Amino acid sequence: xxxxxxxxxxxxxxxxxxxxxxxxxxxxxxxxxxxxxxxxxxxxxxxxxxxxxxxxxxxxxxxxxxxxxxxxxxxxxxxxxxxxxxxxxxxxxxxxxxxxxxxxxxxxxxxxxxxxxxxxxxxxxxxxxxxxxxxxxxxxxxxxxxxxxxxxxxxxxxxxxxxxxxxxxxxxxxxxxxxxxxxxxxxxxxxxxxxxxxxxxxxxxxxxxxxxxxxxxxxxxxxxxxxxxxxxxxxxxxxxxxxxxxxxxxxxxxxxxxxxxxxxxxxxxxxxxxxxxxxxxxxxxxxxxxxxxxxxxxxxxxxxxxxxxxxxxxxxxxxxxxxxxxxxxxxxxxxxxxxxxxxxxxxxxxxxxxxxxxxxxxxxxxxxxxxxxxxxxxxxxxxxxxxxxxxxxxxxxxxxxxxxx
Length: 405
Ligand SMILES: Cc1ncc(COP(=O)(O)O)c(C=O)c1O
Known about the structure:
Blueprint: E1 2-4, E2 7-13, E3 16-19, E4 22-23, H1 24-28, E5 35-39, H2 40-55, E6 61-66, H3 73-81, E7 85-88, H4 91-99, E8 107-111, H5 116-124, E9 129-132, H6 136-147, E10 152-157, H7 173-185, E11 189-195, H8 205-224, E12 231-233, H9 246-262, E13 269-272, H10 276-279, E14 283-293, E15 296-299, E16 315-318, E17 328-333, E18 342-349, E19 358-362, H11 368-371, E20 381-386, E21 389-394
Parallel strand pairs: 5-20, 6-7, 6-13, 7-8, 8-9, 9-10, 10-11, 11-12, 12-13, 15-17
Antiparallel strand pairs: 1-2, 2-3, 3-4, 5-14, 14-15, 14-19, 16-19, 17-18, 20-21
Helix pairs in contact: 2-9, 5-6, 8-9
The structure holds pyridoxal-5'-phosphate.
């Protein structure tokens, strides 16, 4: 059988397309299109590939899955069952992590918005670290921690200095002075980690190097000012696993390791927070052609559920004609009623395209649901596939909504 989109769990044999070990026709009997399928085996493989690559360079590294990439309970459950910790940004995500049994000591919580009820839940549950993007949050955290008589570990997210990013703290003289004052007066917080997350879908080793350089520069400033940091958090930003082979991951790990070694900060623990790499290529959509014109076709899926914001490496295949050459240019449009709903321009596709043809869209496991909007179309059913077993994990008719509360 031949792999599709470089994914060993998407295969074709003659005119048949298989999702893991299941022929697509069996799946299509269970649901209308569009539908989403998530591949459990691929998620587990991705975690192992990633960990093997980084474990070869670091012996003091911890992994935290960035829940926002795909916060479906089953997906978070699969990832955390592999012994990966959780990186969450909100109260609903924190509740989910606790509900599925992630030990609090394996949970990092943080983001640009830390409301009081989120901080309280973190402290009540003694989560590992609160990540702050704004120094003013420290006082708020200290007051709540004091109420619980608990010393809360803190991670400082520094500004990665990428373009004009507003995320994270710029450790200039003013902010360092402010941080020192806060540390001297707030007895219920302990700043012990520094984080920089550079970008998403980073394909070049240089971007990962730039990120660790920013971390090292800031780490030096902190230590020169008497602030002792034990952990370096590298953030996420890796593309889908089919896009980045393990050899490249190893090279990135080696380069990061070398920069840390040159800086003499080798005793620090390393944290890393991949999202997309674990789940991106483990998700596919199956959609259908609903209209065909000269050089274009409209699919019954659009930017409301397959959004550009998700920055997925989208690939399209006509699975009704899977054995035909995909070398004729076609623009694929979505169903949001605006001319702006273009899923792909001049994409290599089959020569003939018929209404009703089923279209596979790959690499949609990360951020599609997260960035989806409430445009008034039905949500897709979502299936989890493992070997020859298939389970509907979201029924659009009875479950209504993918939000977590
Ligand atoms: C701080 C932080 N960590 C991790 C991630 C996960 O990123 P990715 O899914 O690109 O690996 C993000 C994404 O925005 C982030 O902001």
